[in-house]
Design goal:
Layout lengths: L2 H8 L1 H6 L2 E6 L2 E7 L13 H18 L7 E11 L7 E11 L3 E10 L4 E12 L2
Antiparallel strand pairs: 1-2, 2-4, 3-6, 4-5, 5-6
Length: about 130
């Protein structure tokens, strides 16, 4: 199974959005989504909610890869997004890295960059560690 197929199986919404996983390690996860007119808001810009969902999905993946022993999963409990520029062509790549890995929470920083490498948005999120 490819990394993208694993992501889509774990989070079916990522398949609906068209997310492709680029790389996956416990210190960094990368995924991208292509620009498409069906994913846009006014003036041909990718929808902000789509960008937030991309960041949330990639952040959740890196959090999952850093779960402490005995944990079952993770869920987003807080997310902060700063949008810096619109994306009207190409793709957006999300790069998620853990900032803090604790027993009860994992804090993730995610950069969203366009095809030219320009920063599109920055997302900081807190993931709760789920236990039985």
């Amino acid at each position: 199974m490819t990394p993208t197929e694993v992501m889509h199986q774990a989070m079916p919404f990522t398949a609906l959005m068209g997310i492709e996983q680029v790389s996956s390690a416990n210190d960094e996860v990368r995924a991208r989504i292509a620009w498409d007119p069906n994913r846009c808001t006014s003036a041909g810009a990718l929808h902000g909610g789509l960008l937030m969902s991309l960041a949330d999905s990639v952040g959740a993946t890196v959090a999952f890869l850093n779960l402490p022993e005995g944990a079952l999963g993770t869920t987003t409990i807080e997310s902060k997004t700063n949008f810096l520029r619109a994306v009207r062509e190409g793709f957006v790549e999300a790069i998620a890295r853990p900032l803090h890995v604790g027993r009860t929470t994992i804090v993730v920083d995610t950069e969203l960059r366009d095809a030219r490498g320009k920063l599109v948005a920055r997302v900081t999120q807190t993931q709760a560690v789920l236990r039985s």
